[in-house]
UniProtKB/TrEMBL annotation:
Its main location: membrane. It is found in: Cell membrane. This is PTS system trehalose-specific EIIBC component. InterPro entries: Glu_permease_IIB, PTrfase_EIIB_Cys, PTS_EIIC, PTS_EIIC_1, PTS_IIB_1, PTS_IIBC_treh, PTS_Sugar-Specific_Components. The lineage of its organism: Bacteria, Bacillati, Bacillota, Clostridia, Eubacteriales. It comes from the Bacteria. The gene is treP. GO terms for cellular component: plasma membrane. Its EC number is 2.7.1.201.
Length: 480
């Protein structure tokens, strides 16, 4: 018998038996089940299993939190049940059978942006650091920056822009590559397509925004403007999907022995043409409209209302997966206005969820019946403060309900203060306490106050709700 044999038997019973499992894979801390009939899963029985630290359903997958020993648990599960091993991609594909059309679209969007988020985070940190050394006049009575007085820092500032430019100006390359990768088509064609959107031959998108006149490709009977789409999200996404659509369709009708020649040519060339004639201009207008609406909403007289609603509802959006839509909006804002006032609220929401967990930890500090729960709550709180909220939300806050509400209220108040004081981020960053590094340096002070609100309000409300038995279930067994 293995280390987890008894727990596996209990888990299988709670999940509806081996026959109810379509696929199962695992990530760093969770088992990811796709169930034939999700209604057969007995959540209460599953969460009573000793090794299980929580469960939730997301993107059509029933996910069971095991912890750092999940790989050992998974290997024993596979061995003892004879279920075929699956990858996370297998689970995602199978899980879509349980999703409606909108959920499937959001799932696809998430998979497109996930591979490029690390680069965007790095770019945000670089922009923040460049602002510190190149924009803050901290020397010689507040008249000069580090780059003004030091050739080393001036050179460093110049060098770091090499990376920042590669990440943000050439973002369409990453998007078209990611779409080709996700759709299972030829990835190098995705990269080439992205490069045709940001080629040095084209007028830079920033030059166009400044009123510049682009050159043209003159075909005699018509002309096409040579416009670049640096940092543009929607044009790259539209072009990427057209490329994949054409490649998949052409490959089906072209004999295999000539496919290497015919498919790339007839997929790439028409896509590049359509991208510059139709998709690019339309995508630019769509992206600009979205960013204008969001920015106008956040900077209008009722910006506080927009901020309070977004801050309050962001955590529930994470549960549904709809939060992935904000990546495209943030990137468009960065392109249009040089930063984003939406992303700081996301970082604050993460902090608020962590603060609510700290409230639960404080309530149960002397409760011996909650010792096992601390194995989840303490790492979950740390994870929140570093930008990953799922363990905290699904393992603790949603389990009790009232700390989740406390975090939503704290996030809303912190978001209102952030928007009211004009906080802007250079880009998407690490979404917890380190998020301040992505904030434009002139707003560090006000964002720090926003962070204190996101820390203090959820913690205090969690204690208040517990003491006054607001939304507290009878079987919660709190020390309050």
């Amino acid at each position: 018998m293995g280390k987890y044999s008894n727990d596996i038997l209990e888990l299988l019973k709670g999940i509806g038996g081996k026959e109810n499992i379509v696929t199962v894979s695992h990530c760093a801390t969770r088992l990811r089940f796709v169930l034939a009939d999700p209604k057969q899963a007995n959540v209460k029985a599953i969460e009573s299993v000793k090794s299980v630290k929580g469960s939730f359903t997301q993107a059509g997958q029933f996910q069971v939190i095991i912890g750092n020993d999940v790989s050992t648990f998974y290997n024993e599960l596979i061995k003892e049940t004879g279920i075929k091993e699956s990858t996370k991609d297998d689970a995602k594909k199978a899980g879509r059978q349980n999703l409606n059309f909108l959920q499937r679209m959001i799932s696809h969007l998430a998979e497109i942006f996930a591979p490029i988020i690390p680069a965007i985070v790095v770019g945000g940190l670089i922009l923040g650091f460049r602002n510190v050394i190149g924009e803050i006049k901290m020397l010689e009575d507040g008249t000069k920056t580090l780059t003004d007085v030091s050739q080393f820092w001036a050179g460093t500032n110049h060098f770091l822009w090499l990376i920042g430019e590669a990440i943000f100006h050439f973002l369409p390359v990453g998007i078209t590559w990611s779409i080709a990768r996700k759709m299972g088509t030829t990835q190098i064609l995705g990269i080439v397509l992205g490069l045709t959107l940001v080629s040095p031959q084209l007028m830079n998108a920033y030059g166009m925004a400044g009123g510049g006149e682009p050159g043209v490709w003159d075909f005699g009977f018509t002309q096409i403007q040579m416009i670049g789409y640096q940092a543009q999200v929607i044009p790259a996404m539209l072009a990427g999907f057209i490329l994949c659509f054409l490649e998949i369709r052409i490959r089906k009708i072209v004999p295999e022995y000539i496919s290497m020649i015919v498919v790339p040519f007839f997929a790439l060339v028409p896509t590049v043409l359509v991208a510059h004639v139709v998709l690019g201009p339309i995508g630019w207008q769509i992206g600009s409209f979205i960013s204008d609406v969001v920015y106008a909403g956040l900077t209008s007289a009722v910006g506080w209302l927009f901020a309070s609603i977004f801050g309050f509802l962001y955590a529930p959006l994470v549960i549904t997966g709809l939060h992935h839509m904000t990546n495209a909006i943030d990137l468009q804002l960065m392109s249009d206005i040089g930063g984003t006032n939406l992303w700081p609220m996301i970082a604050l929401s993460n902090i608020a969820q962590g603060a609510a967990v700290v409230g639960i930890i404080f309530l149960n500090r002397n409760n011996p019946s909650k010792e096992e729960e601390k194995q989840v709550s303490i790492p979950a709180a740390i994870s929140c403060f570093l930008g990953v909220t799922e363990p905290a939300m699904f393992g603790i806050n949603l389990k009790y309900v009232f700390p989740f509400l406390a975090a939503m209220i704290g996030s809303a108040l912190a978001g209102v203060f952030s928007v009211a004081t004009g906080v802007m981020a250079n880009s998407i960053g690490v979404g917890g306490l380190p998020g301040i590094l992505a904030i434009q340096t002139g707003h560090w002070g006000t964002f720090a106050i926003s962070m204190l609100i996101a820390l203090g309000v959820p913690f205090a409300l969690t204690l208040v709700f517990a003491n006054r038995k607001i939304l507290v279930k009878k079987d919660d067994q709190l020390s309050a």
